[in-house]
Design brief:
The chain has helices at residues 7-12, 60-77; strands at residues 20-23, 27-31, 39-45, 83-86, 102-106. By secondary structure, the chain is of the alpha+beta class. The structure holds adenosine monophosphate. Adenosine monophosphate binds next to helix 1.
């Protein structure tokens, strides 16, 4: 794995600007720079797992924590009328940043199937 920090690590470290909504020992929640909904946050583990399919059994508790934080943030920032979580795994699925993150989208109607 590269020694260089990921863009999300740089934001969490304060090296580049970003709006951090929440932070704990295990993760941070950032507002997306290019929001796809009125609320669009990213739940990012501090441990760099490039993508979900590179997580391991050791990460089970961490992954559960990320989901708990995702719905807690939706309750904090959303309108209470629903939210969507998304994980893009791999380039074909739309992944652009190789540092696992859960998108939390809220405050607009969502459609299915997704694009
Ligand atoms: P993905 O395409 O699933 O890998 O998601 C990466 C997300 O990171 C995209 O929604 C980007 O808009 C977002 N993003 C990229 N750079 C930044 C940044 N500097 N601050 C906040 N969000 C970012």
């Amino acid at each position: 794995m590269s020694d260089e920090l990921t863009i999300f690590q740089k934001i969490i470290a304060g090296e580049i600007p970003g709006k951090i909504e929440y932070e704990d020992e295990h993760c941070a929640v950032l507002h997306d720079i290019n929001p796809q909904a009125p609320i669009h946050m990213l739940v990012v583990p501090k441990k760099v797992i490039p993508r979900l399919d590179q997580s391991s059994d050791d990460d089970t508790e961490l992954l559960g924590h990320l989901l708990q934080i995702a719905h807690t943030m939706a309750a904090r920032c959303g309108d209470g009328e629903g939210f969507r979580i998304v994980i893009n795994n791999g380039r074909k699925a739309g992944e652009t940043v190789p540092h696992l993150h859960i998108h939390v989208l809220a405050n607009r109607a969502m459609h299915w199937p997704p694009g």
